[in-house]
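Input (structure):
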């Protein structure tokens, strides 16, 4: 991919208003097991759900359209609340069945006043005050508040097995010099305090907190993972940065979106990490599965020297994040509780193929694709030279 520097990536994500666990290193996609693949699309609740009135704060960017599609397919009624700026790049045809409310979380919630829903899904919460205001406004009119949080609440990731009760950030520490670290801390604190604002207004027994790791899949405008679908489809020698044994985690956005709707149907309150794949995976396993996705001749070249990668401006590549320092445990987040409550994972092959097809569909303009694929200092352009230097060094 045209590898963005951490700073460029952080800036881009903030511009998009998109969340990011593990900004500095990060990553994930969802390589499900065969078993998980078999369960794809099944109704984990085992029956036809009662029709719900669902309000999605957001709903038109990445996770939102997948929630809309799944909710409609299960007979629910959906309202979205946005500024009317972002247009869905998947399932756009379904939005004529959606009540699209317009306002601004910053200063105009009029469209939400004096209305009732069974559940509100807060996707667009990236400011504690926004969540405080909507939760306070809706607490007597809506049954459940589901806040889409992030595993970013656990930053710095210092543990081996990060579970839902692991301490989360509530205050930004003083004295942090590194700009990217500051953003990581800000994001984690903002997400934790937003979770708390939702719980304060609705009470723990009416609140659901979902903490996704990096999400991959169609409609992802972050350019964090698209390197893989593009590069794997071309074939040849493909760089796999990181050590073979480095842990990796990731989740298909559709698995999170659909599970969120089922949590709402089942009124399963509580806090849940939304992390795949089902079983712990290494970087090498990710590479092995990824390289089989397209029917082209290709070989992976494992580039396993962190210093070399850093010098070559490949500090991370979703789903690989060097598991060192504050990112030690970024891919060691437990998904046990989520799996026990119905999270399923598509196969990595499905995520990569579908993301590839979306990227080359009419949903995106050629100009948008070129913004990534044509970037002169991007990883797609630099990969060949990096591999040549790596081989020279290896003798
Ligand atoms: N991407 C990841 O890997 C990842 C990982 C972990 C957690 N998360 C979290 O997942 C959540 C979902 O993000 P998403 O992009 O997929 O959500 P989404 O619901 O698909 O899209 C974000 C929505 O927010 C709306 N919005 C932005 N500013 C607004 C404002 N001032 N007032 C009202 N609406 C506004 C946008 O529409 P308009 O522009 O039209 O207003 C858009 O519909 C985020 O909270 C993020 O922190 C993401």
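Output (sequence):
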């Amino acid at each position: 991919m045209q590898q963005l520097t951490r700073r460029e990536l952080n800036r881009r994500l903030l511009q998009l208003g998109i969340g990011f666990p593990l900004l500095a290193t990060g990553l994930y996609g969802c390589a499900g097991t065969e078993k998980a693949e078999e369960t794809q699309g099944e109704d984990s609740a085992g029956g036809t759900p009662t029709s719900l009135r669902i309000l999605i704060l957001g709903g038109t960017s990445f996770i939102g359209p997948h929630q809309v599609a799944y909710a409609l397919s299960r007979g629910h009624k959906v309202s979205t609340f946005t500024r009317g700026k972002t247009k869905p790049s998947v399932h756009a045809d379904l939005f004529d069945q959606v009540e699209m409310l317009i306002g601004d979380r910053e200063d105009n919630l009029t469209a939400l006043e004096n209305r009732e829903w069974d559940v509100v899904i807060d996707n667009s919460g990236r400011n504690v005050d926004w969540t405080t205001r909507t939760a306070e406004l809706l607490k007597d009119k809506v049954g459940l508040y589901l806040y889409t949080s992030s595993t970013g609440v656990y930053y710095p990731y210092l543990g081996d097995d990060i579970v839902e009760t692991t301490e989360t950030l509530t205050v930004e520490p003083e004295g942090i010099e590194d700009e990217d670290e500051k953003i990581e801390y800000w994001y984690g604190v903002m997400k934790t305090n937003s979770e708390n604002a939702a719980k304060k207004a609705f009470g723990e027994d009416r609140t659901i907190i979902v903490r996704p790791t990096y999400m991959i899949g169609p409609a992802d405008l972050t350019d964090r993972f698209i390197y893989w679908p593009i590069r794997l489809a071309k074939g040849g020698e493909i760089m796999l940065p990181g050590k073979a044994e480095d842990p990796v985690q990731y989740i298909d956005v559709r698995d999170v979106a659909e599970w969120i709707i089922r949590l709402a149907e089942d009124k399963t309150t509580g806090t849940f990490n939304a992390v795949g794949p089902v079983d712990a995976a290494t970087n090498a396993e990710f590479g092995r599965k990824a390289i089989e996705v397209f029917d082209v001749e290709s070989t992976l070249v494992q580039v396993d020297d962190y210093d070399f990668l850093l010098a070559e401006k490949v500090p991370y590549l979703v789903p690989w994040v060097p598991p060192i320092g504050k990112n030690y445990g970024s891919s060691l987040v437990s998904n046990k509780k989520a799996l026990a409550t119905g999270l399923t994972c598509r196969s990595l092959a499905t995520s990569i193929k579908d993301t590839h097809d979306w990227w080359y569909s009419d949903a995106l303009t050629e100009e948008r694709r070129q913004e990534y694929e044509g970037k002169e200092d991007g990883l797609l352009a630099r990969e060949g030279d990096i591999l040549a230097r790596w081989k020279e060094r290896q003798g």
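Notes: The chain has one domain: 6-394. Residues 17-21, 58-64, 82-86, 104-106, 123-126, 148, 150, 212, 214-215, 222 surround NAP (CB under 6 Å).
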